[in-house]
Amino acid sequence: MAPSPRETSPELKEALEDTVQMVDKAIGRLLPETDLAEAQLYDAMRYGTLAGGKRLRPFMVMQSAKLFNVDPARAKRVAAAIELVHAYSLIHDDLPAMDNSDMRRGKLTVHRAYDEATAILAGDGLLTMAFQILTEPETHEDPYVRCALVAALADAAGPHGMVGGQMLDLIGETTEFDLGSISRMQRMKTGKLMAFSCEAGAILGKAGDMYRRALTSYAYDLGLAFQVTDDILDVEADPNESGKPANQDDKAGKSTFVSTMGKEQARQRAEMLAEQAIRHLHVFQGRAKMLEELAYYVLRRRA
Amino acid sequence: MAPSPRETSPELKEALEDTVQMVDKAIGRLLPETDLAEAQLYDAMRYGTLAGGKRLRPFMVMQSAKLFNVDPARAKRVAAAIELVHAYSLIHDDLPAMDNSDMRRGKLTVHRAYDEATAILAGDGLLTMAFQILTEPETHEDPYVRCALVAALADAAGPHGMVGGQMLDLIGETTEFDLGSISRMQRMKTGKLMAFSCEAGAILGKAGDMYRRALTSYAYDLGLAFQVTDDILDVEADPNESGKPANQDDKAGKSTFVSTMGKEQARQRAEMLAEQAIRHLHVFQGRAKMLEELAYYVLRRRA
After folding, report:
1. How many CB atoms lie within 10 A of CB B18?
2. ipTM reported for the complex, 2 dp
3. Is B159–A45 a contact, with Cβ atoms under 8 angstroms apart?
4. Pairing of strands B107-108, B103-104
5. How do residues B195-207 score in pLDDT, each as one tens digit?
6. Distance between CA atoms of A206 and B225, rounded to whole angstroms?
7. A69, A181, B147, B256: which has the highest count of C-beta atoms within 10 A?
8. Which residue of B has its CA nearest to A100?
């Protein structure tokens, strides 16, 4: 296997930028400004979702949908729904009772910009809206497909996925986790939603099990590579670049890949996982170039 | 119209008790005890859902389903899903940043029995699971029906419904609301989920629009009667009977039906709303006796 490229290709760079613009536009349309008495709720939902971010999950949806010639207008809706769920999870994770973060991406977190109650409700609202978006006929004309999307999102976001992973993350502040437990926690907390993001295109395209499995296997390995890199960034991050303070995990007493295996081994592990992720894409016979490149991109990121 | 009966009929009493048992059993099966590392999340979800309650919404689902000869095994799943959403809303509403309640139904609230982070996650998990339950083929063999259930639940629970209503409720602590604003807030906060509970049977039974409209109109009037009665109970409640302290709304500075129109007028209004609710059921030509009686039951309740 060739060594991981040191620079992002112009194609990936452009595709990532296009996704950011596309998602911002889609979310802006789904969450219009309003002068209703409850406008504060919508403002907070917009603030928490339009606050920047790499939009990796929407990128995964758009790229996987492309593999099965899915209408981008449909994929866009699924991409936006997943990003609402991702944003909800960040808003709730940032709360004082959870990670107690004041800043995210260089801006005040939602509960600091508004208040705690509004942040809790904004998160609840975003999660609920995501499911609603998936049920609408504009997402897919076949209700079986819409139902499958809702089921897969609920599985990825619920107690078997993100919510369970976040519970484990909090338990990890007072319990020492071994490598297996950290991996399971991260798979639930981050991996499952990434797996759904990659699988979504296959669901929309009614693709066979082989393709669905290839995409979810890719996503789990990439998700873990992403998380190992996150742990490395946490110990060496420049707050000006990452938009959040350094060494947050250590301060919270959390076991991480870095605290368990050391920085150098963690770096090797991330590289290995990225290569493994790419191997799952071989079933697409070179048609999944952007997803292949994305696996290296997550290793190189500085924030 | 005959004066509202002063006592609950043996039939209604039995049907209500049956529903309580049925829901407890269904939720217990959907949320099994576990020895996973994240067991605390499941414990808190069980604690927050199996803590008693009148199970009015599941009762509405079961009774509306009966009108269209829907298999009770299916209706039961929808009833449980709605109750999970109701429980999630109570867990989040009770949080320190929201209503800051220590007790509910004579027991510690979830964040007091566990901690705030666990309560936030338990609520998130219950909301997500509710959608998952509705997507499963056991709920209905037709994916169109399952999708319609998810869409209606999301609409009832999201920013246009419960979450928006709760935002208004918080805004009402610092803003004086008139009767119209209080009614709109309550319709969103409580009415919409009750409307879905009554409509669910019609959706499961693929009933026509006339029946769906009759059931939702019934539910909105009953929901308002329920809420006016709640406001009356809040000012005169015996904490030993209701399981929560008295005069909570007044202490929080909230405008209520009682603070706006006075207790005696509020009582008359509730009675009028119950009668109006029952009139919507005339399309069922006497086959909706339990729902008719329920409208008076919500006026008589002491907790």
Report:
1. 13
2. 0.96
3. yes
4. antiparallel
5. 999 999 999 999 9
6. 47
7. B147
8. B117
**Of A245-254, A287-296, B112-121, B223-232, which range is least confident?**
A245-254
Q: CA of B151: which chain A residue's CA is closest?
A: A132
Average confidence (pLDDT) over A238-262 = 79
pLDDT beneath 50: ranges in chain B: 1
pLDDT tens-digit map of B136-147: 999 999 999 999
The reply to whether residue A38 touches residue B159, judged by beta carbons under 8 angstroms, is yes
Contact assessment for residue B82 and residue B197, using Cβ atoms and an 8 Å cutoff: yes
Inter-chain CB proximity A159 and B41 less than 8 Å: yes
Q: Please, are residues A63 and A290 in contact by the beta-carbon 8 Å criterion?
A: yes
**CA distance, residue A296 to nearest chain B CA (Å):** 32
Cβ-defined contact of B123 to A124 (cutoff 8 Å)? yes
Q: Which helix (H) or strand (E) covers residue A108, if one does?
A: strand A107-108
DSSP string, A12-23: HHHHHHHHHHHH
b/e for A27-54, b at 16 or more Cβ within 10 A?
beebbeeeeebbebbbbbbbbbbebebe
Domain B10-300 matching CATH 3.40.50.720: the answer reads no
At A134-173, the pLDDT tens digits run: 999 999 999 999 999 999 999 999 999 999 999 999 999 9
Is B145 in contact with A135 (CB distance < 8 Å)?
no
> How many angstroms away from the CA of B284 is the closest CA of chain A?
30
